[in-house]
Design brief:
By secondary structure, the protein is an all-alpha fold. 80% of the residues lie in helices and 0% in strands. The chain is globular, with a radius of gyration of 16 Å.
Amino acid sequence: MEVFQSITLFLGGALLVFAGTMRLLRPSSSLCLDTFLSDSSNNLRNDHDLTSEMRGAGVITALFGLVALSGILAPEMKLTSLISTTLFYLGYALGRGVSWVTDGEPTKRTKQGFGFEIVLGSLNAIGLVSALI
């Protein structure tokens, strides 16, 4: 189960570091801004608050990824890493699920993100349960 936990933490952590870093460095490329930026009258250069929110979320996402990856390198961090990634991915999935029900059907890309979050959150939850048993 150690190998399963390490692979799961690597996949989840690497994705979080990548996604968070991209949101920090290039907030306009974020999926959640597609609709906003599709209107030519909207421009991130004029909305410093939105850019700040995107970059802030990017840093938090990347840091969660680093916590996940630390569980591979430092055995004493494994439980913390599994808890963090499970909460992060399943929390995001829960939020998207609530939005799907209350706000309507999302785009294909958002559905794909939801799928990844459910899968990675569930895999990390399995790893977490096995670490606790």
